[in-house]
Amino acid sequence: MWLSGSIRALGERLGLAMSRASAEIFPKKSPSLRPSADTLMIGNTIVDLASGTVVGPDGRRAALRPKPAAVLTVLAARPGHIVSKAELLDTVWASRFVDEDALVQCIGDIRRALGADGAALKTYAKRGYSLDIARPVRHHPMSRWGMALALATLMLIGGLWTATSFRDENPSPDAGPAIAVLPFSALSEGERWQRLAQALTLDVISDLARNDWIFVYADAASRSLADAGLDAARDMGADYLLTGSVQTEAGRARLSVALIGTQGGQHVWGEQFTGSVADLLDLQRDASEAVIGQLAARWSGPIARHERAAAVGRGAANLTAYDLYLQAAERIQVYGISDMEEAERLLKRAVALDPGFGEAWAKLSLLSYSRVHPEMTEAEMEALWAQGDAAALEAIRVSPDVPTALVQAANVVRWTDPDRAEQMVRRAATLAPNDADLLAYMAFRALHFPALGEEAMGWIERAITLNPTRPDWYDWNRGAVMVLNGYYDEAVSSYRRAPDHIEARAGLVAALALAGHEDEAREKMAALMAQTPHFTPQWFADAAGLHPDAARIFTQGFEIAAQAP
């Protein structure tokens, strides 16, 4: 039979309940500091420049040391204007002689204290820094009543009482790998190449520091390891060292990078970038973006792959929440039913060990939606959708600025406040502009918010550029985005490379029909119905949570494929 709007009904029920509690995931008041002339609002974060106290949107506090607070004060006095490094050094350190490393360390301290709002502090190579003090966006935790509803849902349908009943008052941050970027070396003589190597080093550090799952040491800390061995790196806590070099010959420049594991000195990843010396700035930019795109890819990049392999070798008795999360991610990419069930068990263990692990909650939400299958009963499907919604709400509660938490929570918010949900997806994109996996992941959200259609095309194409050795689920998402935007042959090409999942197979049917390949579309449709006889266009729309406008496009393709020749 045709399943009628079950996900929308569930969303409305959750939405009504939440609206009775306050109708918003976000509070109406920012964390409070006593207002004064020294109080500064940066995005969603409040800073008391006099005391150095920083209060984030979730109420957590951090403290800036005097020098970073002084640097921030100078920048705040001229918002939006570039303040030179020399001026900052002269103003903050006055008669003392210090090198730029001290300033760079202060900038890093400020960004870490500001969290996601640290993006307001911009670096201009060879020029200085600027601070953009934008109007804050209201960003609030869930109401207590709404959180109780979400957790009750999880306890009833997912058996997660153990994950929530012993919650630490101060949950630990998401565990993740730590990387030190050693100063890139110039293998060609001349100050020009030394400056280029230094600029590339700082670019990589700055851009990597914007991701939310890899800890990146500041330049001053990493520089101390330049002449030290792996033991020193391990003692400092670094899991990986990134090295690089710049070399020129016969008018050509070559930039080489390598990632080394500190535990055994193994070569984890390496890449070379070549180009004309005349286009050196373009080569520097492209190489920096490509390095970040590869390393920051949280699911398919070289660090993620190496971490998963290491977790597999640790043995079940020694697994941490992060290890469990990594193993679940490995299982999910297989897309087999038993693999996805095991991934769910692993993720539930992960959040039981670390209830504050936002990424794991977000992954559990995504997995819950992905497990829905047309051969399930309606009750089974609704249970998984409810579990996905509740896990998404917990993700945004414990990690309000983790991009995947924002994207997953948008799935719930959109039923009652689609405009806010759309803003949450866009915010996630600004938080992780060089994370190829996240960009590819977010691109599918255009099927929920068609207004994101053009942006989603940009996200998916950038993801593929950043991660050319992409996993096949990138193509699944690209196929869906291309259907939405009317590029049906492009969609067919992508869907043919997509994983063997019911939604991807169905997407190929619709794309073939819409592209005019009706005979093949009918053939694929017959095979789909033979394998999943309860498949319907309505089920497809509900399972993928499609916006009505997107659902109509796919339904048109299914209707063409179902017609007799």
From TrEMBL:
Q: Which InterPro entries match?
A: OmpR/PhoB-type_DNA-bd (IPR001867), Sig_transdc_resp-reg_C-effctor (IPR016032), TPR-like_helical_dom_sf (IPR011990), WH-like_DNA-bd_sf (IPR036388)
Its protein name is TolB amino-terminal domain-containing protein
Query: Domain of life here?
Result: Bacteria
Q: Does the keyword Glycoprotein apply?
A: no
Q: Which residues form the OmpR/PhoB-type domain?
A: 37-133
DNA-binding region residue numbers: 37-133
What does the record give under GO molecular function?
DNA binding
State a single Pfam family of this protein: Trans_reg_C
Coiled-coil regions, chain positions: none
Species assigned in the record: Pelagibacterium luteolum
Keyword set, alphabetical order = DNA-binding
Give a yes or no for keyword DNA-binding in this entry.
yes
What biological-process terms (Gene Ontology) are attached? Answer: phosphorelay signal transduction system; regulation of DNA-templated transcription
